[in-house]
Design goal:
The protein is of the alpha+beta class and 474 residues long. 39% of the residues lie in helices and 25% in strands. A hairpin with a 7-residue loop joins strand 17 and strand 18. It binds adenosine-5'-diphosphate (ADP) and magnesium ion. The site of magnesium ion (MG) has 4 residues, from strand 6.
Length: 474
Amino acid sequence: MAAPWEDVLRNEAAVQEAARVAVDAALLAGVLMRTEGEPNASDVVNYAPFTLLPSAVPSALFEQAYAVQQDFNLLVDAISQNKEFLEHTLASTIKVDDFTARLFRIYMQVLEEGLAQSVFLGINRSDYMFDCGVDGTPALKQIEINTIAASFGGLTSRTAAVHGQVLKVLGKSEEASRLLPNNPSKGLALGIAKAWELYGSPSAVVMFLVEEVQRNIFDQRCVENELWNRNIRVIRRRFRDVFEKGSLDNARRLYMDGQEVAVVYYREGYVPKNYDQQNWEARLLLERSRAVKCPDIATQLAGTKKVQQELSQPGTLERLLPDRAEAVARIRATFAGLYSLDVGKEGDRMAAVAIADPDRFVLKPQREGGGNNLYGEELRQVLEKIRDSPERTSYILMDKIQPQPAMNYLLRAHSPLQVSECISELGIFGVYVRQGKEMVMNKAAGHLLRTKAIEHADGGVAAGVAVLDTPYLV
Ligand code: ADP
Ligand code: MG
């Protein structure tokens, strides 16, 4: 994909001027983040990092990603209801990965007690890169699917307008008019609102479960405001608050400070550092409750890297989605090579292959949030160290996707303006609501494009590596 803005990139004066306009437009549009120095105060805020120019995305792959999203929603939901599959798939992982094991224990505990929850809400984001094959034709390849706390649906709802203005300043108003409108925060809120309505208690609130450090609050506020606009009350609480003040009545209705909670929307709870003993207890209380959890613990487990790897095994998708051959084919077409490192011959073989040729692979632990994967020489060293230990089963191996880089400017507060060679990752938001056995909503809710300089192998926007972008379809 050649950048459509070659002429602009060479015109330094035009770039400087456009960057000034871009930053002010971002601030005005609300593309905001709290600062590293004051992560819990809104007195000082800055713009969230973003690209100066929208990045080229092949329109066929963009459409393919949208077209497969409802299939992925169905798949995640099916996995979340399949105890045998989760048990079998995660059996080796939970022996060595304490975090997954603790989530799994809660999962088993709530199943044994019997679920009080009957309405289910899934909000996920399936992420892709455009892999350049040997002949240079790009293909859509899934990086992962995020089933908990998938972020930036709010801020990205505002980037197209910023990029549109930048293009106009650069004399490209025709191109500006081709940028697609995009509003995931509205789609996410519609899902939450539907779940709230089906829960059936008009005085109940929606609780956003948030982290101690809340730099990305404005992204969440975009979704919150959509709910307030629909006259749905929203409260924000931390695990600590739930531990101190949360309670269940004898029908396992969840109460916070005397208010009944209809929906718990997790923007927290996806990495080990989110938990101490009290937070684990709070998590268990929430999972036992009748409130709609987004996601419930089963759906969080459905988003693990180990499950992703298992899905790529022959026959697995067919078993999970029987009688849906077309959906299975659409899903499978997005898979890159994924390999188990479980103890046994096949795991031994793949470990040896990766050690011999580490640049072909990514080594992934069961973690979220960016910055956890291993590449190249580091991958080789770690794998060599653990190749004969069961510890290796806490990882999966994945083929490394090789996108075609393009030049862009990454605008980041307090950083000099310089051109970088970049690659992009496209995410599609999925939203679904199930009541008992019946799917009552299943949608693609919008997209997110994140772009990073090629020298960073890993890391998202929150990790300070990638920046927000807007797709320019070519
Ligand atoms: P996390 O849960 O930490 O977000 P990801 O699987 O999304 O884990 O990986 C983090 C980042 O690493 C991605 O955003 C992407 O930039 C890079 N990455 C992950 N898998 C691959 C891959 N197979 N090929 C190339 N880059 C990858
Ligand atoms: Mg990711």
